[in-house]
Design goal:
14 strands, binds phosphoenolpyruvate, binds manganese (II) ion, eight-stranded parallel β-sheet, 357 residues
Length: 357
């Protein structure tokens, strides 16, 4: 339910409504837009009609949200969410097309720094490398853990890129909060509800990947788990789903991008690396993703994919990444997007990015 405030409502009136909502055992979430200020009410809303919220001073109207996902829905926030990062001009969901790139796994310091240097020169603003890997086999490389996070922190310091990395469980998530700028929740964990709730209490933005066989509604309900705990900075990601097709690792479902954007104000990225599983398909599907209106891309890049410890066959060579970027530059103006590929430079640590010794 949404309590829409009058434009002249005072901060005291807004506070009184939030207090009333919380005293009734519901949760109040402010939804600030350029057109209106509203308070979303979540919880088991049975009986809320008789609580007299509509008669309180400053209230313009009460709107019932028809969808099962409330905070994620465009009904609660008509404007697009733009995810921002402290002390950075990088955004996801605004006019600027977001580019996240990096190796599937952090394998060693030299491997990670080699790839990061090439990506920084190519203008990537967000670097993704997995320090904790969800692998089908328990005998496959599981990631370097905290050592990997320290390498990622070094990448941020040396090259100035923001760090995105996957939390496979709550323990990993807590470690990641000390080192990274954005938490990835992988496809296999899309419905790990305790992990989603913990991510919802994190100060970091969350990149939520669609499950291997998840419907759009299930993806949006998982985003709702994160938002319901207070974290508004959620970015969705289409990474391909399981189908009968056997010519590619997964089927990149580009039709979900405009569908998600219609139902939700959250940004949505495309991952053509996992979506295809083959490096020569990544650029064509990346261009198609931009053309259907994706808010950005996440792609895997490796300087020596033959020897990569995970996802080598789908990892692009750095030169292919550079080539993809130049083709994107031709397409993006058509869909009214900009692309900032000025090479990134190293920068000093900021308060929001305190790393452990
Ligand atoms: C990854 O990004 O490397 C990954 C494991 O992705 P997904 O969760 O989409 O399979
Ligand atoms: Mn991968």
């Amino acid at each position: 339910m949404l309590v829409v405030m009058q434009s002249r409502a005072t901060s005291d009136e807004i506070r009184a409504i939030c207090e009333r909502i919380e005293s009734l055992g519901f949760r109040a979430h402010s939804v600030e837009g350029t057109q209106r200020y509203a308070i979303a009410v979540t919880g088991d809303l049975r009986g809320i009609e008789s609580c007299g919220l509509d008669d309180m001073p400053g209230v313009q109207e009460i709107i019932r949200i028809s969808k099962p996902f409330k905070l994620v829905s465009r009904e609660s926030r008509p404007e697009n969410t733009v995810v921002r990062f402290p002390n950075s001009d990088v955004t996801i969901g605004g006019e600027e097309f977001a580019l996240i790139a990096g190796p599937c796994s952090v394998e060693s310091r030299s491997q990670t720094l080699t790839i990061a240097e090439k990506l920084a020169a190519a203008g990537a603003k967000l670097f993704r490398g997995g320090a904790y890997k969800p692998r089908t086999s328990p005998y496959a490389f599981q990631g370097m853990g905290v050592e990997g996070l320290k390498i990622l922190a070094e990448v941020r310091e040396k090259f100035g890129m923001l760090i995105v990395t996957e939390a496979v469980d709550t323990e990993a998530l807590e470690a990641i909060e000390d080192y990274a700028d954005m938490i990835q929740i992988g496809a296999r964990n899309m419905q790990n509800f305790s992990l989603l709730k913990r991510a919802g209490r994190s100060p970091l933005p969350v990149l939520l990947k669609r499950g291997l066989s998840a419907t759009l509604e299930e993806l949006l309900m998982s985003a709702e788990y994160i938002m319901s705990e207070g974290n508004r900075n959620v970015v969705l990601c289409e990474r391909g789903v399981r189908t009968f097709a056997d010519h590619s690792r997964n089927t990149l479902d580009l039709s979900v991008i405009p569908a998600a954007q219609k139902l939700s104000h959250l940004p949505i990225l495309s991952d053509p690396s996992h979506g295809t599983g083959k490096r020569d398909r990544v650029t064509p599907l990346a261009l198609a993703s931009a053309a259907v209106g994706a808010d950005g891309l996440i792609v895997e890049v490796h300087h020596d994919p033959e020897h990569a410890l995970s996802d080598g066959p789908q990892s692009m060579f750095p030169e292919q990444f550079v080539n993809m970027v130049s083709q994107l530059r031709a397409i993006l103006p058509v869909v009214h997007r900009t692309l900032n590929v000025e090479p990134t430079k190293g920068r000093a640590k900021t308060e929001a990015q305190v790393t452990r010794p």
